Structures are given as C-alpha cells and as structure tokens.
Amino acid sequence: MTQLNRHIQPNINLVDRISLDKPEVQTLDNDIPVYLIDTSEQDLVKIEFIFTAGSWFEPKKLVASFTNRMLKEGTSSMSSAKIADLIDYYGAHLETNSDKDMGYVALYSLNKHLHKTLPVLAEVIRDPVFDQKELETLRQNRRQNFLVNNEKVRYLARRKFNELIFGEGHPYGKVFNESDFDQISQDDLVSFHKNRYNAGNCKVIVSGKIPAGFVHLLNDLFIGFNGQAPDHQGTIPRQTELEDKKTHFVKKNAVQSAIRMGKVLFNKTHPDYVKLKVVNTILGGYFGSRLMSNIREDKGYTYGIGSAIVSLHHSGYFFITSEVGSDVTQEAVHEIYYEIDQLRQHKVSAQELDLVKNYMLGSFLRSVDGSFAQADNFKSLLEYGLDFTYFDNYIEVVKAISREEILTLAQQYLDPESLSLLTVGK
User: Fold this and answer.
1) Which of 53, 156, 172, 339 sits 20 to 30 Å CA-CA off 216?
2) For 274-291, what is the mean pLDDT?
3) How far apart are CA 290 and CA 338, in angstroms?
4) Whole-number Å distance between alpha carbons of 233 and 57
5) Is residue 169 within 8 Å of residue 61, measured between CB atoms?
6) What is the pTM of this model?
7) Does residue 356 sit in helix, strand or coil?
8) In terms of pLDDT, which residue wins out, 228 or 344?
C-alpha cells in the first residue's frame, strides 16, 4: 500500500469542462414555457415563476417591491395568516423576491404535498387582493426599517452609490426616501400586478425530483391565467457623467466611515466580462485578495473589504466596498488606490494567478452542486438570452487568461480617474 507523504503538496488539476443537465422544455396551454431540471433523488421540488417585474419598470418608486411582497398577504379566498399556516403545515416554503430587473415567486415543497401546496402558489400569483390593511402594515414596517437602516453608514453608502454612478433619473440610479412610502396606493399595486404578473411576461423553472404528471397539474392550475407581454422600455436612459467623482456624505457621530468606489461597466453578455471577473478576484473578490491582505491583514483598518462586478439586464457596474474607522478613512482610500495602481503597473505573478484560477474554478463547481443550484445558474442564462456554452466559455477563459491580459484589462477598465469615490461618515 502506498503511504501518503503529507510533506508533499498533491497535484492541482484544473477543471477541464463541466457537463450540466440541460432542462427539458414544455409549454403550458397559455404559452408559459416551463423548464424542467430533474436531477435530484430526494422527493423535493422547487417551482420558481419569473417575471420581468423589477424596479426598472415601476411607474413610481417602491411599487415593484411592494407588489412582489404583497403577493403573499392575502387572496380572494385566503388571508395572509391562512396562506402562512397552510405552507407551514405541509413543511413547504413560499418566498417572493424582486430586484432591479425581475420579480420572483418560488415554492419549495415535498412532492407528496404538491396537491396541497401548488394551488396556494397558483392563487398567490393569480389572485392577490392587496388588502389595504395589509398594505398599511407593510408600509409601516418598511418605513421603520428604512429609518433604522438610514442611521447606518453602510446602508447610506449603498443607496447613494448607484445614484452617483448612474444618475438620479436613471432606473438603476433612483433611490427612495421616506416620503415615497406615502405615495404608494392599492391601485398602484393592482395595476403593476396586472401589467407585469401575467402569462405573457412569465417563465417557470422547476428543479428537484419532478413527479410524473407535474406539468399537467401545473397546467390545470393556470388555466385562464393569460395576459400579453407588456411593452418593454425600448430606449435605455443615458447615465449621467459626474464632473466631480469624489463625494462625501456627512453622517455626524458615526464611529466608522463607509467607502464605496467604482464605475458603470457592462453585463455578462460583454466579451470581457469573465476576464474582468478574474481581475476583480485578484483585487478584492475573495478572502485572499490584495485588498484584504493589505487593508485588513496588514494595516488592520477594517474587518472586511471586497470588490465585485454586478451584472444587470441593461448595464452593469464594478464596485469596492468597506467600512473603516473614522480616523483611518483617508489612509484606507489611499491604500485602495495603491492596490489598483499596482495591478495596472505590474504583471501579476504566475503563482498568484494560478491560485486565483483554482479558486474561481472551484467556486464555480460548488455553485452548480445540486439541482436547485443548477436551476439558479440556468436562470442566470435564461434572463440574458445565453445558452450553456457560456459556462464552457467561462472555464476556458479563466484557464487561458494570461498575466499580460490581466495587466491590459486593469489598465483599460480600472483607471483611477474613471472611478467614482463615495465616503459616508463624519
């Protein structure tokens, strides 16, 4: 028997390619496409309805998120309490969520209880009543959370940053204020639901162990659920260029300062998107990144700092974020610029690049482990009109990117003069 020598590092094998289960596609009688990812051995299924119903499309601030949240707060035949009790009784989970582009409604349920839980999901989507009393309760809770969070420098920085880089009038740059809570009416939610939560604006992804006859059951529950796809906003508003890219927002008595730095970029359909994700990982995209090593480990200015690239349907952006002690804010900003300059002036070492490649490919493998995870990854393709070759390309780009390309990309996209800086604190 061969004895393991623990003094010798085992060989590292990069991911060559990955084979993901492509969904089976069926169509309901009302033309809703249903994507079936049947890869689980457990008698559990996730059904997710996807609507283009994010804040990009709302006629006034907060309408998209309020509409999505209120779906579970009562229908023509069930109160919010009854919906919650039924879902809990059968060990299921019903969740709603919305972002800047999309609105989601998802049900997790044991297969043996689908005949009880799936009708609840259908009624929540088809027949919410947007009860005035429930609306007032939600309004009060959301307002209170807003007021509490508004005392936190991190929350203020996150809100203000998108407004700075996109512009106040841009759908991705708009921010709500306390007065906006009072502007939302029941009629606003009813209208937004009618226009956005309908069959013509809908896709369904089902993952897990899908029982026989599931699509027929789904079809029966959504008979009569119709509607046409709404007119999508054809002209994308222009982003506002800031003359002064450095902004400070005063928050008296704050013991920390929040730092946000970044710029508008592009989304995952751009040919440089995956390459720039490699650059971002080196800079601040994982725990061993340069920003973490310098500003947390070496200088001790912060508990955490990171960077990311965000993909949106009509745009995208890069940002760096951290909270530091008020007395070291300028020093931390200086070190951020220093690390950006180092990335733009010197080629990354072969050892560091190999480490980042291994990390990114390993993270990707973890992100597709399980049917629900595969469904989430497929959703990220479906929303952007991409196919599964995107994942093969992702692996190839990460494996093949060179030190010279890293340097060129950093010089092209991370020019300090192009980055907006926002600090919130004393």
Assistant:
1) 53
2) 97
3) 10
4) 8
5) no
6) 0.91
7) helix
8) 344
Structure tokens at 54: 């994010």
Distance CA 117, CA 91 (A): 9
Q: What percent of the chain has pLDDT over 90?
A: 83
Q: How many CB atoms lie within 10 A of CB 251?
A: 20
Please check whether residue 320 is in contact with residue 262, taking contact to mean a CB–CB distance below 8 angstroms: yes
Q: Which 3-state string (H, E, C) describes 161-199? A: HHHHHHCCCCCCCCCCCHHHHHHCCHHHHHHHHHHHCCH
Contact assessment for residue 339 and residue 292, using Cβ atoms and an 8 Å cutoff: no
Supply φ then ψ for residue 28, to 5 degrees: -75, 170
Q: Quick check: 118 pLDDT over 90?
A: yes
Question: How many degrees, rounded to 5, is the angle at CA 279 between CA 274 and CA 281?
Answer: 90
Query: Does residue 9 sit in helix, strand or coil?
Result: coil
- Residue-level length of the chain: 426
Residue 279's H or E segment, with its range, is: helix 273-280
Report pLDDT for 233. Answer: 57
Structure tokens, 411: 């010089």
Residue 131 CA to residue 76 CA, distance in Å, equals 10
Write the single-letter amino acid at 361.
Answer: L
